[in-house]
Amino acid sequence: MAENQGRKRVMLIVPMLDQGGLERVCAATAQLLKTEYEVHLVVFNTAGMIYDVSGVDLTDLNLGAVEGKIGKLINVQKRVRRVRQLKKKWDIQLSYSFGPTANLVNVLSKYHDFIWAGIRGYGALSDKRSMKLVCRLADRVISCTKVMEQEICMQFAPRQSAVLYNPCDLAQIQTLAAQETSKEFDSFFEREGKIVVSMGRAHEVKGFWHLLKAVSLVKKELSSLKLMIIGAGDYSEYKTLAEQLGMGEDVLFTGVQTNPFALLARSDVYALTSESEGFPNALIEAMAAGLPCISVNCLTGPAEILHNEYQQCADRNKTYYADYGVLTGIFHGSKDMNPANITEEEKSFAQELKKLLTDDKQYQCCKDAAKGRAQQFSMENYLKELKKLIETDTAQ
Q: I want to staple 370 with a disulfide (CB 3.0 to 4.6 A). Which of 22, 142, 277, 287 is the partner?
């Protein structure tokens, strides 16, 4: 195409574009780069695609996930062969993949392109065999937090590494936050009481049973307190736990929402209780919506987001009043849906949550700091760092 003449040629590779953090970052990256680079977005399967990649050259390999070890092996070989063909066809200069399965295909399909392997979640590090291969073959490993980068360098010694924090569309969030919420939630919002909110899919890693138990403890002193959890999945067991804790009417499970930011805007405090994260986008989004935040100091992300000198928060069992929010000790033990079992960590989290809700000075300080901090994760800052890396690596 004439408009692409002279532009550097970049391929982005992602398994799918359905709901998910790495998928969102990939789509945002494609949109940001398309005006200055020749961008080709390759997706293993576009079924369930929800992210906007309009105006980007999109190729669907129609090679989605399959069952069985042999089937998976054959599928990887097909993906590698097809991606290598596309790299040759478009004479790709830099290929950036998102997530373990895409990274494997990217490094195995190398033509004469510069390979970026994107590690967006801490869980990827547990597959030692795959990580060793990817780090040996990739020209650069891109992590979404500094802690993750340090861990990868220590364990797997990649050729080169870099950190690119996930971008956040602050202007869009603020626009959407000003919109009205669905009428189906009116009765919840109309009832008296402050609202604690959290976002995430119904997965054990999000630790929502900890949140429910902690809020139930705070409600003993702030009886009108309410909790809202936004996200996809089956929350039936959490609804049961809420009933058993005596606060079924005061907990709203919204399901997945096309505009969660309007719901955030009607809340008072954002709480994160995850066992682990890659880079918690929802925490940044809540801060952009102007919410003060309390988070467990899990691996990885919360400390880097909430405190400038995140290394000072190395003891994950302590509480830190960080620069941009409250960091509490992590939760210990396995999933426990028994309402009678309340851990010391849940009691500690509840205590800090109550302080944040009742101390007006601390509340306002965290609220102001959160909104200012979110600006540092803007699309503009992400694009600036991204372009700097692309220009460096395509010049080699």
A: 287
Among candidate residues 220, 272, 212, 262, the one with its CA nearest the CA of residue 237: 212
pTM of the prediction?
A: 0.84
pLDDT score for 4: 59
So what's the pLDDT on residue 146?
A: 93
Among candidate residues 309, 260, 320, the one with its CA nearest the CA of residue 285: 260
Instruction: List % helix, strand, coil for the chain (3-state, nearest 5).
Output: 45, 15, 35
Q: Which stretch of DSSP H or E encloses residue 115?
A: strand 114-119
Predicted local confidence at residue 378, as pLDDT: 94
- DSSP-assigned letters across all residues of 253-314: EEES-S-HHHHHHT-SEEEE--SB-SS-HHHHHHHHTT--EEEE--BSSHHHHH-TTGGGG-
Question: Could you give the 3-state DSSP secondary structure of residue 325?
Answer: coil
117, β-bridge pairs: 97, 141
- List the single range of 11-20, 61-70, 76-85, 212-221 with lowest mean pLDDT: 11-20
Give mean pLDDT, residues 10-25: 90
Enclosing H/E stretch for 5: none
Length of the chain: 396
- Delimiting residues of CATH 3.40.50.2000 domain(s) in the chain: 2-167+378-394, 170-377
* CATH code for the part of the protein at 2-167+378-394: 3.40.50.2000
Is pLDDT at 356 greater than 90 in this prediction?
yes
Q: Would you tell me which CATH number, out of the four given (3.20.20.450, 3.10.20.600, 3.40.50.620, 3.40.50.2000), belongs to the domain 170-377?
A: 3.40.50.2000
**Rounded mean pLDDT of the chain?**
95
Tokens of 315: 């003891």
DSSP state of 17: -
Q: If you count DSSP H runs as helices and E runs as strands, how many of each does the chain have, helices first?
A: 15, 14
Query: Cα 172–97–94 angle (5° rounding)?
Result: 100
**Looking at per-residue confidence, does 277 or 291 come out higher?**
291
